What we know:
Shape: globular
Number of strands: 4
Number of helices: 4
Low-confidence stretches: none
Distance between the termini: 28 Å
Helix content: 25-40%
Strand content: 5-15%
Amino acid sequence: MAYALRELLTRSRRKLVLTRPVVEAGESLGYLPGDLEQKINPYLRPLYDAMEALVPYETIHRLEESRAIEIAPLAYMRGRSLTNCIVILDEGQNTTKEQMKMFLTRLGERTKAIVTGDITQIDLPRRLNRGLSRSDSS
Length: 138
């Protein structure tokens, strides 16, 4: 997160895009009220905690208002071409191979991606081809 914020605040990149697959960890949260950003916000809370540890909340709020920070659920990335951005894909262990391929092909010129994930904490069904695993058998 520190690297991504530095890239954004020094204007080396025009936008920071936060994304993740929306996969619940074994329990259903049910219907979440609000707009798209409000629905995905609980899933991105760890990234916001990291940002708030590094810069004041007012800075984050200003960057959101100017659309320099964007929240984009992974499922809504299809068809996009991200240029001159820094993109953080959090919880990458919960992507399928198809989702990971789709994500990687969104990265355009001067875009850098940071993918986080822990393959010991996968919440996907075993039968799915996982996008962050080393082999299909894991």
